[in-house]
Specification:
GO terms for molecular function: DNA binding; DNA-binding transcription factor activity. One of its GO terms (biological process) is response to stress. By secondary structure, this protein is mostly helical. It has helices at about 1-5, 10-30, 35-45, 55-60, 65-75, 95-100, 100-120, 120-140, and strands spanning about 50, 80-85, 90-95.
Length: about 150
Amino acid sequence: MLDIYFKECLYFSANRLGRIITKMAEDAFASSGVSPTAAFLLMALYERDGISQKELGQILHLQPSTVTRLIEKLAAKQLLYNRVDGRLSLIYATDKGKSLEAVLHQCWDALRERYRAILGDEEDGLSLHLYEVCNQLEQPNGGSTRFPAAP
């Protein structure tokens, strides 16, 4: 009976999936010297160097304190720096950080290939579906219109 509870529990299954894919991503990005989340932060900078810390948090779906810690770690490795512009903290990749771009893209490609080797071409559809599920669950009332939020 307990097995059924676990199989039917989105919380349990999502956390299990999170642990599995976190391990896979850590393995794939190990050669870069940065965590997968730090790699995605740097990849965001490659697209929009000089982005605000707030925008980085929104793009990466991370809390401000988590973004701050990531930035501090990457700044300590001299991969990025921040510049305060009024009330904004703008984040830029250093030359050293920019030099990792090709390596990070190779790691990203290797991770996607590993997913595809296991899941086949369904991986893209699954990723898109999970992204949409996250968007729905982040809506007020968890995307549900049937049950009001608890007082």
